[in-house]
Amino acid sequence: MATTIHHRSPGVQTAATGLTLFAAVMLFVAGTLDLFRGIMAIAQDDVFVNTPNYVFKFDLTSWGWIQLSLGVVAMIVGLGLFASATWARVVGVGIAALLIIANFLSIPYYPVWSLTLIALYGFVIWALCVVQRKDQNG
């Protein structure tokens, strides 16, 4: 039984580390911004657009708590990515996907920012999925 050990070139290792760092920074920053957006919604700030005929209608305070919770989790996962924790890569993809859905549902309340964060979280998912984990043997 032959085992194959894959060795990566230094350039590939550097790119992988850079993408993980990119995902960590973006997840932490975007999570912080979602936290603040959640606080604004809980306070019922006048920043949000009022859209009475939207299919996915939520109470602004409830929506604020959802955004705040997801933002806090994103920040924690971002910190885990700085430590190169494997759990953070797996949870990072999941929380970024949830945040894409949450931002899609909040498009009528804050349209430009929601679309911006959808694109940002898409890049985070890409960065976390492209990087291959380290081999068990080397």
TrEMBL record:
Domain DUF7144, chain residue ranges per copy: 20-132
Record has Transmembrane as a keyword: yes
Coiled coil stretches, renumbered: none
Top-rank lineage group of the source organism: Bacteria
Alphabetically ordered keywords of this record: Membrane, Transmembrane, Transmembrane helix
Segments traversing the membrane: 21-43, 63-83, 90-107, 113-131
Protein name: DUF7144 domain-containing protein
The species this protein was found in: Streptomyces hokutonensis
